[in-house]
Specification:
Elements: H1 2-36, H2 45-49, H3 53-63, E1 69-73, H4 83-90, E2 99-106, E3 124-130, E4 134-135, H5 137-147, E5 159-161, H6 164-171, E6 189-192, H7 193-196, E7 202-209, E8 212-217, H8 218-225, E9 228-230, E10 233-234
Length: 235
C-alpha cells in the first residue's frame, strides 16, 4: 500500500513539473511575440516626422538658421471662417498678420525667358501679401522695370496670377497650401513691405498643406529667403 502511494506521488510530481515547464514555455513565447510585434501607432512618430511636410520644412528652416517658427493644423473649413476666427485659432497678433503666398507670371516675358534663373527678370515670382491688403500688380511691374535699370522695355512686364496648375507644378503645393519654403522651383520672392512693418514681427502664411499653417519671425524669414521688399499693396 505504501509502495503504491509512493508511486502515485512520484507520478503527480512529474505531472506538476511538466505543467510548470509548459507554463514557462508559454510565458517565454509571449515575451518573444511582444518584442517582435509591430510598433504601435504613434510609437515611431519621431522616426516618421522627417517624412511629413512639417518635418521637411522644419529641417529646411533650421538648416538656414531660422529658429523662431511654428506650425499649426487647422480645420478643413478654415477658409470659411472670418479673419478674426483664423487669427484666434492661430494665436496671431492681429488679422493683418495673416498672409498668403501667390505665384505670379510675367505674361509678356520674351520667349527665351521661361524659368526663374534670373531673379531680376524671372518668368515667375512668389508674392507674399496680407489677406487684409489689396495687392497691386502694377506696382510690381514698375518695380521690376526699375530693377532692370530700364534696359528692358516696360511692355515686356505684365504680372498676372499664375493658373493653379502652374502654381502647383512650380511650388509642389496645392491651392491654399502654398508657401515659399521648400518649393520645387527656386523662385524669387517678393515680400510686401507692409508685412515687414508689422508689430510684433511674426506673421502667418501657408505651411505646405491646405490645413497646415506656418508662423515665422519676419526678420529670420527675410534673412533666409532674401526677398525683394516692395510696397505693393494698399489696405
Amino acid at each position: 500500500m505504501e509502495a503504491a502511494l509512493a508511486k502515485l506521488e512520484t507520478v503527480q510530481t512529474r505531472i506538476l513539473r511538466r505543467i510548470s515547464d509548459l507554463e514557462l514555455e508559454n510565458i517565454s513565447h509571449s515575451v518573444s511575440l511582444s518584442s517582435t510585434a509591430p510598433t504601435p501607432a504613434g510609437a515611431g512618430a519621431d522616426a516618421d516626422y522627417s517624412t511629413t511636410t512639417e518635418g521637411r520644412l522644419s529641417a529646411i528652416l533650421r538648416a538656414n538658421a531660422v529658429r523662431d517658427f511654428s506650425f499649426k493644423r487647422v480645420r478643413s473649413d478654415y477658409y470659411d471662417w472670418t479673419f478674426e476666427a483664423r487669427r484666434d485659432i492661430l494665436g496671431a497678433a492681429s488679422i493683418h498678420h495673416l498672409c498668403k503666398s501667390i505665384v505670379m507670371v510675367n505674361t509678356q516675358a520674351p520667349a527665351d525667358v521661361t524659368d526663374c534663373s534670373n531673379r531680376n527678370y524671372s518668368k515667375y515670382y512668389v508674392v507674399v501679401v496680407q489677406y487684409t491688403a489689396r495687392f497691386n500688380a502694377e506696382i510690381v511691374k514698375n518695380f521690376l522695370y526699375t530693377l532692370n535699370d530700364g534696359k528692358i522695355a516696360k511692355k515686356k512686364f505684365n504680372m498676372r496670377l499664375a493658373p493653379e496648375e502652374i502654381s502647383r507644378k512650380l511650388t509642389g503645393y496645392e491651392h491654399n497650401g502654398v508657401t515659399c519654403i521648400g518649393m520645387k522651383t527656386d523662385m524669387p520672392v517678393i515680400l510686401d513691405e507692409a508685412i515687414v512693418k508689422l508689430n510684433p514681427d511674426f506673421f502667418w502664411l501657408g505651411g505646405g498643406e491646405i490645413d497646415l499653417k506656418l508662423g515665422i519671425r519676419t526678420s529670420e524669414f527675410v534673412n533666409y529667403v532674401k526677398p525683394f521688399i516692395v510696397n505693393c499693396s494698399s489696405s
